Amino acid sequence: MTTPNPHPYPQPETMAAPKTDSRPRPKRRAADVAYDAIEALLSTLQLQPGGQIVEAELADRTGLGRTPVREALMRMVSIGLIVQQPRRGLLVSAIDLADHLDVIQTRRVLERLIAACSARRATVQQRTDIVRCAQAMVEAAGRGDLTDYMRADHALDLVNHQASHNDSAVRAVIPPIVQCRRFWYAYQHEGEIVEGANAHLELAQGIATGDEAAAIAGAERLMDYLEVFARKIIDK
């Protein structure tokens, strides 16, 4: 398997989500761009659990202003990805083994809901795009290319979340997704990458058919895969 580079998927300001219609997308808020950039650093452990957050360094690292970076960090504090401690400032939250199965259980409920919504509401183009992203994951897994795998995984999440038209569920699922990605990187999940890609493909194909039951079954398979891996680590 290839060694992951420092940026496993494109920086958010340049990354384009799969095209779903011909209408121009509204310009994204700088704070949202900053949030995505910092989330990528958290997910890939470039910001280590327990490490101190230095606002100025993050602004330099992401190429964004301190104001949007500060706003993004406060949002992360509110959902537990960043913790604020007296006299120590902002710290990256720890990866809690004891809590991780609860994280997956929570994510399972949300992923089922999002998959069902996407199956029901996705446009024709979105159905095509989500399968294309999953196929890219399968191809990257076959090459052992973790960089392309994570890029395609991130793109799949974007189109799936857009297709669901359920902003409440999407906002709720983002923190568990980031925690699962951090767990994945922390324990060097390499051996099961093909299985993971196939689970994503089943989810994508279920959504593409418009069959809510098939989409939910795909979400269940993906969560089962993550849970089995987590239990292997926890039970060691």
TrEMBL record:
Residue span, HTH gntR-type domain: 28-95
Compositional bias per record (Pro residues), positions renumbered to this chain: 1-11
Recorded superkingdom: Bacteria
A molecular function GO annotation: DNA-binding transcription factor activity
Keywords per UniProt: DNA-binding, Transcription, Transcription regulation
Ranges for region Disordered: 1-28
InterPro entries in alphabetical order: GntR_C, TF_FadR/GntR_C, Tscrpt_reg_HTH_GntR, WH-like_DNA-bd_sf, WH_DNA-bd_sf
Entries under PANTHER family matching the protein: GNTR FAMILY REGULATORY PROTEIN, TRANSCRIPTIONAL REGULATOR, GNTR FAMILY
UniProt-recorded name of the protein: HTH-type transcriptional regulator McbR
Upper taxonomic lineage: Bacteria, Pseudomonadati, Pseudomonadota, Betaproteobacteria, Burkholderiales
